[in-house]
Amino acid sequence: MAMDEQAARRIARAALVRYGLDEVDLHFVKFRENWVFRAECGGESFALRLHRPGLHSVVEIQSELSYLEALQQRGFPVPEPVQTRDGQLICAIDAGDGGTVLVDVLRWVEGAAPLGDAGAAFDGTSPLTPQDFHRVGALAGTLHNHLAELGRLPGFSRAAWDGEGLVGERALWGDPLALPVLSAADRELLAGAIARLATDLTALGDGPDVYGVIHADLTPENILVRGDELVLIDFDDFGEGWHLFELATILFFYRPHPRFPDFVDAVIAGYRTQRPLDDRQVRLWPGMLLARGLTYLGWAAERPGEETSVWLGEHVVPVVLNLARDYLSEHRELV
Fold it and tell me: Which keywords annotate this record (predicted)?
């Protein structure tokens, strides 16, 4: 279902009534996978998400929101889910074409701004410091400790960023080799790196010391700064995966930044203040960074012509190709 902003606003207002929010000022925030609006009502603000049909099921969204509730109860800084008048976390609104749109509402994180953004990360102008990334690494370690203690909550249903999900034939975000801008030589290079990476990921295993429930999109754009506090938002990609994949996600877009090696050291050091990260995992850092990059190429391949896809094709493809060359070269040197 293609939905324009007018239709999205109609659905948003219908959903807000279910949450007891009748008289609101509604402001468009963004549209990527989902439509996101800010609703202001009675001196309070709320984030309203209209989920793209087919992206996540009711059970999957319920899993995400259940974890947000559990994390907040533990004192970990995340947005608070809001219940409908009848005590539900999700509502389904008639889309007007025979289908429905799933909607949820979170309390807006007031007085906060994103820690960083991908554009400034990628062009090297980001003002973030190693100290900032040390804090982010510690945040990720604390998150993983909470998630490990929570385990799989009842009804857990989320995608797995495992070997199949990252580099398998049915990768979660699509086939990176299908991206049209790749040459035959590019595809051959990436295919070789993917085969090597699949073997290394299998060897890493999925024990609780290396693998578990993760955020899966822990970029500085999804970390809000509120005073001295860091607040983690946007659990839309939330699922199971390697802890090291989480750290690779933090830093992928900073790969071209001149201080990238310092940022890597800082994230790992910060993480280790909260949770062990052994050398066996760290040795796979180049491969996990490559895995993260491949997911972005798969995402772009699935959405040809979109503005973000074009940007990924122009700017991220060269980075991923270099990561693949370095990764394969490193393996040849070890043989």
Answer: Kinase, Transferase
Domain that holds residue 30: 5-107
For residue 153, give the amino acid letter. L
Q: Rounded CA gap, 245 and 290, in Å?
A: 10
> How many structural domains comprise the chain?
2
- DSSP codes joined into one string, 207-254: -TTTEEEE-S---GGGEEEETTEEEE---TT-EEEEHHHHHHHHHGGG
50, 167: one domain: no
Strand-pair category, 25-31 with 35-41: antiparallel
Domain limit, last residue, from 53, 72, 107: 107
User: What pTM value is reported for the model?
Assistant: 0.95
Phi, psi of 36 (to 5 degrees): -125, 130
> How many whole angstroms separate alpha carbon 136 and alpha carbon 132?
6
Question: Are 125 and 93 members of one domain?
Answer: no
Same domain, 224 and 297: yes
The H or E element spanning position 161 is strand 160-161
pLDDT per residue, tens digit, the chain (335 aa), is 568 899 999 999 999 999 999 889 999 999 988 999 999 998 999 999 999 988 899 999 999 999 999 999 999 999 999 999 999 999 999 988 778 999 999 999 999 999 999 889 988 899 999 999 999 999 999 999 999 999 999 999 999 999 999 999 999 999 999 999 999 999 999 999 999 999 999 999 999 999 999 999 999 999 999 999 999 999 999 999 999 999 999 999 999 999 999 999 999 999 999 999 999 999 999 999 999 999 999 999 999 999 999 999 999 999 999 999 999 988 665 43
